[in-house]
Design brief:
CATH class of the largest domain: Alpha Beta
Number of helices: 1
CATH superfamily of the largest domain: Ribonuclease Inhibitor
Structural class: mainly beta
Helix content: under 10%
């Protein structure tokens, strides 16, 4: 049977995939999102020409081990499917470059995930019940985007530092108390979103992220910042609101590309004069601290066009 390369069955209230699709041996993309599928048929694993399989937002409950037969699959979307586990054979999907397992009930990621060495575009595992991440994830050295937000993580593996191609790391809304020292090896990183955790300090190695442009750390328990933060020469956004900082390091003066600095709701009773010398600062938020009097350089910032909230 000659089949179109793509088949879109999204939102059709299907309770099962039509058996007629089993004859579509040339099918490359199958999308059946937002239906009522509770299982996937055995014949699906015979469609070895499939490159994209998108069955998110169905009440599947589980994926069979047979999914490993789809060796040519490049994109797999199984988000919002009430999954509690992923099959070990998912590691056989060697062509996979995009994997979305978000909005499920996953309590762990399988060790075989580390075999997906072509996973390069993104791994999205947000909104699950993960309490830890397998060490084997460090094998995904081509990955450019990783999202582990809205889980129950208390730590990240040291192998995180192997993500030398990673450009964006989102780990907010977890229970992280520390970040690994290996973080400093993420030399391609542009954005780090670690807000809404339980961090009390940052590793000194954070200063090695020379290309970092956004650092979001709001709603943690930070009581200090390392001096090395001043080495983040490309940093444009630094969000530190809702922490426990009593002081800021003088090294902030070296963040010459900084545009937005949010210091709301900390314990600051003084500010380093270096902030007033940041040439590109556009917004400074100082509200809800313990500052008795604003330093004179605040007026200087406002005079040159910086918005200051106090």
């Amino acid at each position: 049977m000659t089949a179109p390369p793509e088949l879109d069955l999204d939102g059709q209230q299907l309770e099962a995939l039509p058996d007629s699709i089993s004859q579509s041996t040339g099918l490359k993309t199958l999308s059946a999102r937002e239906n009522r599928l509770t299982s996937l048929p055995d014949w699906l694993w015979g469609l070895t020409s499939l490159q994209v399989l998108s069955v998110g937002e169905n009440p599947l409950g589980k994926l069979p081990e047979s999914i490993g037969a789809l060796r040519g699959l490049g994109e797999l979307y199984v988000d919002g499917c009430s999954l509690t586990l992923l099959p070990e054979r998912i590691g056989e999907l060697q062509a996979l470059h995009t994997l979305d397992v978000g909005h499920n009930r996953l309590i762990a990621l399988p060790d075989s995930l580390g075999r997906l060495t072509n996973l390069s575009r993104y791994l999205y595992a947000s909104n699950n019940l993960l309490t830890n991440v397998t060490e084997s994830i460090g094998n995904l050295t081509a990955l450019s985007y990783l999202n582990l937000t809205h889980n129950q993580l208390t730590a990240l593996p040291d192998t995180l530092g192997n993500f030398t191609a990673l450009r964006e790391l989102r780990i907010y809304n977890n229970r992280l108390t520390v970040l690994p020292d290996s973080l400093g090896r993420l030399t391609a990183l542009r954005e780090l979103h670690a807000d809404h955790n339980e961090l009390t300090a940052l590793p000194e190695t954070i200063g090695e992220l020379a290309g970092l442009r956004e650092l979001r750390l709001s709603n943690n328990r930070l009581a200090s910042l390392p001096e090395s933060i001043g080495e983040l020469a490309a940093l444009a956004v630094l969000d530190l609101r809702n922490n426990r900082l009593p002081a800021l390091p003088e090294s902030l003066a070296r963040l010459t590309r900084l545009r937005f600095l949010d210091l709301r709701n900390n314990r600051l009773n003084a500010l380093p004069a270096a902030i007033g010398e940041l040439p590109n600062l556009e917004r400074l938020d100082l509200r809800w601290n313990k500052l008795r009097q604003l330093p004179g350089w605040v007026q200087h910032l406002e005079d040159r066009g910086c918005t200051v909230w106090d």
